[in-house]
């Protein structure tokens, strides 16, 4: 029987949902996705959950924040002068910033005060447990 190994190309349907059942991402109604084990397409713990699964098998895994997008880190909250923003701001708004290396970094407006704005640079799913539901469609050996 062909099982998912660390040398596999895996084609699968997947779904990510929050604790309350809200679906964050799913391709069950679309073409299945493919990835090569270890190529960085999936988070490492999500890949490890697939090891030993076979074609047609379906399973759900609850992933703690540490195994998903990490814990919510308060050091990723930054205060910036409100004068830096030339636009109307709303809480929850996502704004693109550039880091020191000029890489794009999305930040969420967390709080708007009279003189300062708090921007949250955590991943939007940080601190959340996720349910990772998968169905294996195909497994190929990668040379």
In short:
The protein is mainly beta and 143 residues long.
Overview of the molecule:
This protein has one helix at 44-50, and strands at 8-17, 23-26, 33-36, 58-63, 77-81, 94-98, 104-112, 116-120, 130-141. The chain is mainly beta and 143 residues long. Strands 1, 2, 3, 4 and 9 form a five-stranded antiparallel sheet that branches. Strand 1 (8-17) and strand 2 (23-26) form a beta hairpin. The chain is elongated, with a radius of gyration of 19 Å. The two termini are 18 Å apart.
Q: Layout of helices and strands, plus pairs?
A:
Elements: E1 8-17, E2 23-26, E3 33-36, H1 44-50, E4 58-63, E5 77-81, E6 94-98, E7 104-112, E8 116-120, E9 130-141
Antiparallel strand pairs: 1-2, 1-3, 1-9, 4-9, 5-8, 6-7, 7-8
Strand fraction band? Answer: 35-45%
The N- and C-terminal alpha carbons lie at a distance of 18 Å
Query: In terms of structural class, how would the helical and strand content be classed?
Result: mainly beta
Question: How confident is the prediction overall: mean pLDDT?
Answer: 94
